[in-house]
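for the record, two folds in this file. i put them one after another cuz i was lazy. first one right below, seq on top, structure tokens after. the second one comes after a little note so u can tell where it starts
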Amino acid sequence: MFNLNFTICLKESNKNNLFQANEVGLRLSQADIFSTQLIIDGNGSTFPITETDNPSGPLWQIKKLWKDPMTDPFNASSVQIELNRKHKNYNMLEKNALSKDGVYALLMTQIVAQSIAMIVVEARRDVEDENEYFEIEDASDGSIMKVVDYWADIYGIDIRNDNIMEVFNKVFEGMKEQYNEN
């Protein structure tokens, strides 16, 4: 787990006035401007999982931040699962509170499977909007579409399938099989 906190600090001081910060490195913001947690789940997370504090928000959400799935890298700058620490059921997502075979494992498997299904369908739609006859082989290495192609291979997904429920069912069944093998 990584905590990322962003603040404003003084880079250099050119003029000294009364009540003006004059020490290089001095923190200028009272609170963090932005704060998040990056969680690396298990032996290499399926994709970036971040956390937020939003008392009125959902337990989790997927953030689609990409512009072009054929070239944009598959990392936190393009797509994320965001878990809400302030949600009343967040404690169900804490590994230490639950056994490996309990609610945590089932809930996280559901969240990841739903997220994969959404990414597969949305990324394909976005690419088809630009080029109806795209070839997945043309996707850049490390791109979102290369990851979609990998998922299609390991879960037996037809990426041209527009039915998110069918895609989810394939992914979820594949994940359950993988989980039971480990």
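(here's the note) second protein begins now
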Amino acid sequence: MSRETRERRLKAEENWPDLRQFLESYVHEDWDRFDASPEAAIYRAIGDHPVEMRQTIVRQWWDWNNVESSQYDPRPAINDGLGVNIHFESPEAGRHFMNMVYDKLIVSIRKEVEHWKP
């Protein structure tokens, strides 16, 4: 593991521990053995987390997005930092994945807590 990878991982563990755990636990190197797609893995992760934890994850997603997504290429922050094991063809594909995670979390929360905002 390179020094940059280690630093990204430590930064994510310190700043966004629940977001990192949520993603790393479901979209790890064997995700395709358990789920048909990354989207299906996210749905499974959502189903395994209570609404209060999903709210915490969304708040951490907001913070992560403000800090890391503004970079030209967020893939290292997604893959190395958050532990996602998906090969994104482009920076836009990485952003699209993270936005999909956010959208699915928000929809799931609002089914239980009407008009919730992070």
